[in-house]
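Bench notes, afternoon.
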Amino acid sequence: MADKSSSNAYWSANIRIIMMCMVIWFVASFGFGILLRPMLSGIAVGGTDLGFWFAQQGSILVFLALIFFYAWRMNKLDAEHGVEE
């Protein structure tokens, strides 16, 4: 990353990825687990309703999937901008 515009493009893409991951995690944890729980109560998953499952397990699994997605996407972004390890 030799110039300022390349650095700005890199960090802009990085922040965009982070914000996308944060929105997905918010929807999975707060949205499905709290706000939409009454609508999801009729769907059974593992002996309990889907809203409760998202509040207890689903948001954690979504978070773990986002960690792997972020690592994969950042490796790709690093290679695009020439800052890979």
